[in-house]
């Protein structure tokens, strides 16, 4: 039982049974991962420069469309060659602009114990977002509500390897679209004291998120501290639209980091070539990153992408494929070349249920993005059905997989090597280690024991009801939700947030339309 | 449709429907993978030497038990310090002995088109073996028969990324143990013309396998060519037994390679420390490898291991855990340090069905062993339930995963980079690539499209019967078996093999006992 769990029980009391249950579940957040394994780097220096050259040629000669008056005006003022909506960016201008992006920063949570060092060799795991459906605690596929979203935020809060509650993990369909960003933001803030993401569905919505962050963290604090992250998708090939750009501006003006994420369906909106797709994606990401510095020089920003390949047979996006691994390795190399922290997507997949396909897809991607050395590992829990649903069962299993990936990426622990070797002499040929004092003392930290996997005999498994992983995982999710305790918001802050939401809901017409981002 | 498939249809005829079905299934074996990605290497030069030093200290000071009169006599003759059953091996003697192990060789198949370059940056995928149960074409768990084994050999023959049919993928329980090695070997030889493994359940059984190989390949050919591989498990910690050692001798005397594979249950028969477990395993593997060179200097041999960690909670072996990945990375470094080709295990897992657990475990392991740079990737298809059953459904899915891992490990294809970049200019911002001539020409080779994954919409998936991956995979397995055509053995060879088996079955008493190896 860890200190945080003990402390919680001590402080808050509650019924004996719940206390007992809580005491066996560790909910202390793991610090931001510090990777010790060197990333997989399939390109040599010349090849990195070849991609860089190709991307810069695209930016200069093909240009990027900014479908937004303000951005076009900003680019003109910054000295870019603007022809209609198309902005041709000189490579020197791009290099000069991205040079002011911080290589690392601290990502702040309302509980300072959950602050995250970000960039360089640090990685954080952020759950999926944007699902218009869920598979619920009964594994039933249906439309999500705000209560379902709250449950996901509670789970994200309690699962140690998740560093954030993100934002709209599932879309709360019981609220009108125009008001949803307010409720989503409040849910993230209220049910967890980890970091969270801010909605970027429009410039005005992003402004609302910034106002709510100002209530929670203080206006002045935000000026010098990253307290949320927003995602801005580019429309590949080579287009940024008004909704994303205005949201980007809202974040950058407040010095808050955005993920500049081209939305790539390899082969459909990129060339059918791994390195050429990366060259295009890199050009797109650089154009967004450069624009963040036009809006506010020195503002933190994150090199992003959403990355799938499409099936030539069905046109559907695919995940867990070899090219996605390779592209992640390459993008990691490019982001490090430019000294900008970068975001990737974890656990993507197209399975319709939480079957073996989902497991293969998720684990292949997890290994690839860890080996790629990604900093912001988004969509790390729950993603299924090409993002169309978030699965409660998969959510808790993915979170444990993150903990396992975390352990792997930490590398080898040499600290007790000599004592462990002494055990070899003690035990000798044909002996057993389980009773040895070193084993007793060090086993738990030496070898990860996944709780979501069943490794018992088939006889034991049958005796326990022949439960596949979905059933076992849902049982765990229910148990977590039963013992959840809210990390209380300051009452005055809570009231101010509620007042803000009430006022804005009166002001904003209840027009309905669905926006998601990836 | 590839040339081999066309040729088969042209030569063999058959009914129209079967011909039609075959024409859409590619069964041409992929050549041995040549890895282009640099392996993940978590140790620096000093740390490698630290493991080497620790292993050599164990060999010199603790020693290794050889429970076998002949081996003890051989070691005495070789100048080792033999005290009872315990052999203390001087590091200079070990280094001198392993220096004569070939760094690479060709692994021969009866069809020379399926020969495999082996060692260095080459990798081969070999299916699982040793399962006492199967999950069959109806996903029913039951005892396997010789016909079931034949079906697995047929599938291994037809699945392009599998380079071998191995041997007893499942145990043919309808035959007495004492005769089984004969039937298993014949099944491997008859149903496929890829490489196969030889049984090592005892010295005498291994001799039978050698005799059957001599019938198939010729006595003289075997003297200079590897035509099979045998696995010899060590009993960790630090014991080799008579059955394994006598089988090892049978193979080495005929110049055939064995896998020297300590059987590691991390924490139970090793210290609870990743580097110390590797140091012990390395000592064990080196002692086996050194002995192969005592038996026959210059004989090919393979650094092996079976590697799991055990759960402190249940005592059960675990797979897909972070430490298994780390240990694989380290073992790869040690094998390369000694310049000996090495074997690992793929797709291990403890799931009782082909559920998401199985998918996570398999994919995590596959990524780890590819990144570790393993040469002989055993247990690459079908493994489930800690090796207690081989799953037909998982077998065909794992085989496709191998093809995907293969593609990833090949690295980036730069050959059409400039043409692909030209497409970026043609298409421009906001355009579509699917109709572009470069996309049409290069899509298939640019992006892997997994057939065993469903990436359609949920509506389409429901319309097709809401089939999870198990059902879809079994359909594919049935289809493969329906269109299977035997790569005919030469009639005289076939008759000689049958005669040999008949004679030996008359000679060998039908005593029953179960042996498996991993």
Write the layout of secondary structure elements.
The structure is a homodimer of 518-residue chains.
Chain A (H helix, E strand, L loop, with lengths): L2 H10 L3 H8 L9 E2 L10 H18 L1 E4 L1 H9 L3 E3 L2 E3 L2 H8 L5 E4 L8 E4 L2 E4 L7 E3 L5 E2 L3 H13 L18 H15 L5 E2 L4 H15 L1 H6 L4 E7 L3 E3 H12 L4 E9 L7 H22 L5 E3 L2 E5 L6 E2 L3 H17 L4 E3 L10 H17 L3 E3 L4 E2 L4 E3 H19 L6 H11 L9 H10 L11 H6 L5 H15 L7 H17 L11
Oligomerization status of the protein chains? homodimer
User: Globular, elongated, flat, extended or rod-shaped: what is the shape of chain A?
Assistant: globular
- Contiguous runs where pLDDT drops below 50 for at least 5 residues of chain A: 1-13
Radius of gyration of chain A, rounded? Answer: 23 Å
Which structural class fits the helix and strand makeup of chain A? alpha/beta
In whole angstroms, how far apart are the ends of chain A? 37 Å
Number of strands of chain A: 20
- On the 0 to 100 scale, the average pLDDT of chain A is 94
Largest sheet of chain A: 6 strands, mixed
Instruction: Please tally the helical runs of chain A, counting DSSP H or I stretches of 4 or more residues.
Output: 19
Helix content of chain A: 40-55%
Strand content bin of chain A: 5-15%
Largest interface: A-B, 129 and 129 residues
